[in-house]
């Protein structure tokens, strides 16, 4: 979480709580500020999982977040709660994509890495993984969640998380080499 507004708000739990409470009351300014904070975060989660549908998954996740913001009981849990919604939406989009097309997926725009060749290689390796494998790999290694947290978030047993991680890592290494 490196964005300006995003990181400033993370370091100020009182501001985050005020924004969430304002959004829960329907305050348009609070909702706009919260959207500016959550959009990059949710996009970083949806992009690696949903690939070319990352932007659409991000949009759907943000819509779901704001539709159900009143259900969030603890403002400090906002990012974890939004992460769960983002992963769920990204996986929905990958499921739709698999049912609709067998055409290989590509990034619509280059990832924001310094080395575009490296980014292309990473994108290619990620593209070859099953969506479920991309999700556990991203949650474990990009978001830094424990296997137990990934299990709870995806509502799958820890053993399934471990086997998906094993397969994802093996497939990534194979695609990378």
TrEMBL record:
<dbReference type="InterPro" id="IPR013325">
    <property type="entry name" value="RNA_pol_sigma_r2"/>
</dbReference>
<keyword id="KW-0805">Transcription regulation</keyword>
<protein>
    <recommendedName>
        <fullName>RNA polymerase sigma factor 70 region 4 type 2 domain-containing protein</fullName>
    </recommendedName>
</protein>
<keyword id="KW-0731">Sigma factor</keyword>
<keyword id="KW-0804">Transcription</keyword>
<dbReference type="InterPro" id="IPR039425">
    <property type="entry name" value="RNA_pol_sigma-70-like"/>
</dbReference>
<dbReference type="InterPro" id="IPR013324">
    <property type="entry name" value="RNA_pol_sigma_r3/r4-like"/>
</dbReference>
<dbReference type="InterPro" id="IPR013249">
    <property type="entry name" value="RNA_pol_sigma70_r4_t2"/>
</dbReference>
<dbReference type="Pfam" id="PF08281">
    <property type="entry name" value="Sigma70_r4_2"/>
</dbReference>
<comment type="similarity">
    <text>Belongs to the sigma-70 factor family. ECF subfamily.</text>
</comment>
<keyword id="KW-0238">DNA-binding</keyword>
<dbReference type="InterPro" id="IPR014284">
    <property type="entry name" value="RNA_pol_sigma-70_dom"/>
</dbReference>
<dbReference type="InterPro" id="IPR036388">
    <property type="entry name" value="WH-like_DNA-bd_sf"/>
</dbReference>
<feature type="domain" description="RNA polymerase sigma factor 70 region 4 type 2">
    <location>
        <begin position="122"/>
        <end position="170"/>
    </location>
</feature>
């Amino acid at each position: 979480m490196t964005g300006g507004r995003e990181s400033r708000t993370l370091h100020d739990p009182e501001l985050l709580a005020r924004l969430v409470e304002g959004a829960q009351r329907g305050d348009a300014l609070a909702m706009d500020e919260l959207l500016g904070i959550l959009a990059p975060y949710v996009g970083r989660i949806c992009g690696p999982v949903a690939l070319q549908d990352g932007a659409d998954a991000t949009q759907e996740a943000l819509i779901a977040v704001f539709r159900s913001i009143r259900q969030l009981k603890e403002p400090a849990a906002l990012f974890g709660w939004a992460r769960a919604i983002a992963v769920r939406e990204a996986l929905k989009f990958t499921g739709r994509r698999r049912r609709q097309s067998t055409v290989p997926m590509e990034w619509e725009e280059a990832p924001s890495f310094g080395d575009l060749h490296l980014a292309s290689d990473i994108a290619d390796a990620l593209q070859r993984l099953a969506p479920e494998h991309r999700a556990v790999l991203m949650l474990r290694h990009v978001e830094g969640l424990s296997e137990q947290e990934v299990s709870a978030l995806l509502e799958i047993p820890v053993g399934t998380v471990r086997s998906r991680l094993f397969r994802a890592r093996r497939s990534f290494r194979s695609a990378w080499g």
